[in-house]
Amino acid sequence: MLNLDIVKWPDDVAGAYRAAGLWRGGNLADAVDDHAATRPDAVAVRGPDTDLTHVDLTYGDLVDHARTTGANLVAAGLRAGDRVLVQVANTWRFVPLLLACLRRGVVPVMCLTGHRERELTHLADLTRARAILVTADVRGVDHLALARRVVAGSCLEQALDIDDVVPRAGSSARAVTEGGAGHGPGGEDPAVLLLSGGTGGLPKAICRTHDDYGYNARTAAGVCGVSRSTVYLAVLPLGHNFPLACPGILGVLGAGGTVVVSPSPRPEVCFELVRRYGVTMTALVPTVAQRWLDHVGQDPASRGDLDSLRLLQVGGSRLADSVARRIGPELGCALQQVFGMAEGLINMTRLDDPDDVVTRTQGRPMSGHDELRILDEDGAAVADGAPGLLLTRGPYTPRGYVNAAAYNREAFTPDGWFRTGDVVRRRRDGNLVVEGRDKDIINRGGEKISAEDVEDLAYRCPAVLHAAAVAVPDASLGERVCLAVVPREGRTVTLEDIHTEMRAAGAARTKYPDKLHVVDAFPLTGVGKIDKKALRLRFAPTREEERSTP
Ligand code: OOB
């Protein structure tokens, strides 16, 4: 009925997770309904609306809004099992939309606002989605027009505007009932489709079930001490695993706390929200944490805005030890490092860990049921303290990507271990240090870009004979996209030529190379492959260049 190739956990493993009480069989939205029943007037979601008025939704309001939203989805022809691409701005509306989808079994595919025709068309066809739902205007981009173009060129049937689906704040919608007999979706049914950081071309979809994602959110909430009094500021793009469920929106609402949605990661915006709403916890990528530190450095009085902030989670890319050490003293809150992935496994430092662990490691698995292996290139376990490739399995790490049988044979071992592509070292105390990676991606400020996709796009430029995209270190973003090309005989290639082709192909702006190197030939490895390690070294900026990049 679902018409998707989803790899399930083996029956015996699933049975063990159920028997151990890790998988509970319900719907991810159940906890929110329970809070609405017992504490309807507690504040669930708040923050500035698109017109900058401030919105407050109690648990009672939130459930009402989710019900009406669900009815609107049904009225638009969407049914349990249907997929919907969701490309929306960070506002409170995301939350009732998410709950409505969960309740109705409509499966959101969590796109980024930076995605353009190329990515959206691919994701629509990959997940056989029926609709795309957007915020009509995000920072001046007409997403409804974009969505309509994607509908015209893909299997999608319609484009919906979130403003037409989620009722206005303040409107009462108590009359709408859920409708539909029998039990709703839950348990091993798909809850959301997350996107992979993407090796091997365009993004892959990861199916997270109500069981596994519920366990993910609850476990993260437990490690972070989330309670009813938690006020969580959602800063990162809401469809990303980190703000969604680590513990994020789902973990905080599950515990009866309050979610404040920020429209932007800018310190000027976030500090004001922290002060106004007494935010106690948030999650950032390292580049944003750095901007917050710089802000306090330039305007020391602004630190007072953060008085209520207790916990700052930082993850998504490697946090430099030197920056980690500054967070406690300069922002006045505890740091937690998070090394996670949309594919499942989440590592966290703990709230009572010594400074040495919090500032110098990326933590350890959040669940005692996570299985880890750290292997050398021949597949043998490395000694503790030595770097190796990280593989994992566990109760919230799915066994394959959606509709990707061939790719799954590379990314997963026959017995279900996921090859993360990360190179880590396990310290004697069990904490991991991320040393690098073995996968061909560029981690640009926490956003993962597939080198292969950048190369595919570069090859559209007729003057390009060979192309290789590599990450180069960057002081503000961590990494930037650097493209090296060998032009065809007698031809020239400029950065502008590459950007023009990428624009014409409808590619996300983040993939546009920041730097182009035109070379006569590529260095090759012993087996004749392009030696990307050598290219990376060759193009690494000098310290001076790194400092002067905007
Ligand atoms: C998070 O998820 P994704 O799917 O966007 O990216 C996963 C990849 C990891 O495999 C690793 O290469 C990198 O991002 N990464 C880190 C890191 N956290 C993620 N590399 C070094 N240090 C870290 N702390 O990025 C994500 C998902 C949930 C929670 C947090 C991050």
Written description of the protein model:
Belongs to the ATP-dependent AMP-binding enzyme family. Residues 33-401 form the AMP-dependent synthetase/ligase domain. There is one protein chain. With 550 residues, this protein is α/β, with parallel strands linked by helices. Among the domains are: 29-185, Rossmann fold (3-Layer(aba) Sandwich); 443-548, GMP Synthetase, Chain A, domain 3. It is 32% helix and 24% strand. The protein contains 19 helices and 26 strands. The protein has a nine-stranded mixed β-sheet, with helices on both faces. The protein has a four-stranded parallel β-sheet with strand order 4-3-5-8, sandwiched between helices. It has a four-stranded antiparallel β-sheet with strand order 18-19-20-21, with no helix packed on it. Helix 3 (59-75) packs across helix 4, helix 5 (117-127) packs across helix 6 (143-152) and helix 8 (210-223) packs across helix 10 (248-254). The site of 5'-O-[(R)-(benzoyloxy)(hydroxy)phosphoryl]adenosine has 21 residues, from helix 9, strand 15, strand 20 and strand 21.
Question: Topology, please?
Answer:
Elements: H1 11-19, H2 30-38, E1 43-48, E2 54-58, H3 59-75, E3 83-87, H4 94-104, E4 107-110, H5 117-127, E5 131-134, E6 137-138, E7 141-142, H6 143-152, E8 158-161, H7 162-165, E9 190-195, E10 205-209, H8 210-223, E11 231-234, H9 241-245, H10 248-254, E12 258-261, H11 267-277, E13 281-284, H12 286-298, E14 311-315, H13 321-331, E15 334-341, E16 344-348, H14 355-360, E17 364-365, E18 371-375, E19 388-393, H15 405-411, E20 418-426, E21 432-437, E22 441-444, E23 447-450, H16 451-458, E24 464-474, E25 478-487, H17 495-504, E26 515-518, H18 532-539, H19 543-548
Parallel strand pairs: 1-12, 3-4, 3-5, 5-8, 11-12, 11-13, 13-14, 14-15, 25-26
Antiparallel strand pairs: 1-2, 6-7, 9-10, 15-16, 16-17, 18-19, 19-20, 20-21, 22-23, 24-25
Helix pairs in contact: 2-3, 3-4, 5-6, 8-10, 12-13
Bound molecules: 5'-O-[(R)-(benzoyloxy)(hydroxy)phosphoryl]adenosine.
